[in-house]
Amino acid sequence: MATKRFQELQVYQLSEQLVDDIWKIVEGWNFFAKDTIGKQIIRSADSIGANVGRGSFQDNRRFIKIARGSLNETQHWLRRAYTRNLLTTEQINAIKTIINELASKLNSYLNSIGNIPDKK
Question: By its UniProt entry, which Gene3D superfamilies does this protein fall under (predicted)?
């Protein structure tokens, strides 16, 4: 069975879309907001894609779990940004759509790599 390069995986492409959308929003914030919460959101969102396809096959399951943790962290920072009036309801709704799909794809990807027998 041929394996896809990680850049071709929908889960990876969604993670790129999420962080690119967040980046565009954060660019418009004032310096204080960018320097505090903006950096945190970007770092956690970047970590999602950085962990997809990382490591050997055996390590990949662990890194996908780390990616899920980074997605949870990103959601935390987005909630804080919304509470602090840095995000509009429209922006949150658009991002939420991507997050929901990405969460589902991360879980599906984790389950799929768990079902492939180890090659020995």
Answer: 23S rRNA-intervening sequence (1.20.1440.60)
Using left for φ > 0, alpha for ψ between -120 and 50, and beta otherwise, residue 55 falls in left
Residues 6+ apart with CB under 8 A from 91: 25
Q: How confident is the model at residue 116 (pLDDT cuts 50, 70, 90)?
A: low
- Specify the number of domains making up the chain: 1
CATH code, domain with 92: 1.20.1440.60
For residues 106 and 11, what is the distance between their CA atoms, to the nearest angstrom?
A: 6
Query: Can you say how many angstroms the Cα of residue 72 is from the centroid of all Cα atoms in its chain?
Result: 9
Structure tokens at 46: 């970047």
Mean pLDDT of the region 4-18: 91
Q: Is 39 inside a domain boundary?
A: yes
